[in-house]
């Protein structure tokens, strides 16, 4: 379980004292912050179709990225372990390259329709031959997160949005994945990985 002494560092304490929130912060640490996922939080995560991922490089320089998929693409393997796929992107690997040199990461899940959000901090590992890999069509690898801290956030500033449609680029078994237009640009095509479908010349009409 999290405690004020384990959850907060001096910088956070400085602001808590400046704005007289130390008592409130200590209460939150003791009452809502945990080092495991509850059944309710597990259900919330496994309904999610997106989350935000924060990483930092070896020098502590941060990066934040969006991760999306079909509902259920993030799995709660046990109360302290998450797993999810990495799909094809722009080839920069900023987030996961950071995690290979600095495994400390944070995840933010938000339900914009119901106004719920959940923050998770933990340690990331990437295993090339993860046994879950075959269960995610189109995945390059699986990231696993060992949970360190879990706590919900106040929902009052969450704007309400309604889902219009999910991305057609999420890979599915036995279905061709569309090729994004940017990969077909002449100055990009020749730089793509050798096995990228976008490297194939366009078919004559």
General description of the model:
The protein is elongated. The protein is built from six helices and seven strands, in the order H-H-H-H-E-E-E-E-H-E-E-E-H. 21% of the residues lie in helices and 27% in strands. The protein is α+β, with helices and mostly antiparallel strands. The chain folds into two domains: 1-33, no CATH class; 36-193, Electron Transport, Fmn-binding Protein, Chain A (Pnp Oxidase, Chain A), CATH 2.30.110. The chain has a seven-stranded antiparallel sheet, with helices on one face. The longest helix is centred in the N-terminal third of the chain and has 10 residues, at 22-31. The protein has helices spanning 4-7, 10-18, 22-31, 39-47, 94-101, 186-189, and strands at 50-56, 62-68, 75-78, 81-86, 104-111, 116-127, 141-152. The protein starts with a helix and ends in a 16-residue tail after the last helix.
- Class derived from helix and strand content: alpha+beta
Order of SSEs, N→C?
HHHHEEEEHEEEH
What portion of residues belong to β-strands? 25-35%
How is the CATH topology of the largest domain named?
Pnp Oxidase, Chain A
CA radius of gyration is 20 Å
In the residues, how many domains can be counted?
Answer: 2
From the N-terminal CA to the C-terminal CA, the straight-line distance is: 63 Å
Uncertain ranges: none
Can you count the beta strands? 7
Q: What's the shape?
A: elongated
Number of helices: 6
User: In CATH, what is the homologous superfamily of the largest domain?
Assistant: Electron Transport, Fmn-binding Protein, Chain A
Q: Provide the CATH top-level class of the largest domain.
A: Mainly Beta
- The CATH architecture term of the largest domain is Roll
| Mean pLDDT across every amino acid position | 93
Widest sheet, order of strands = 2-1-5-6-7-4-3
Main β-sheet: number of strands, strand sense, barrel status? Answer: 7 strands, antiparallel
Give helix % range.
10-25%
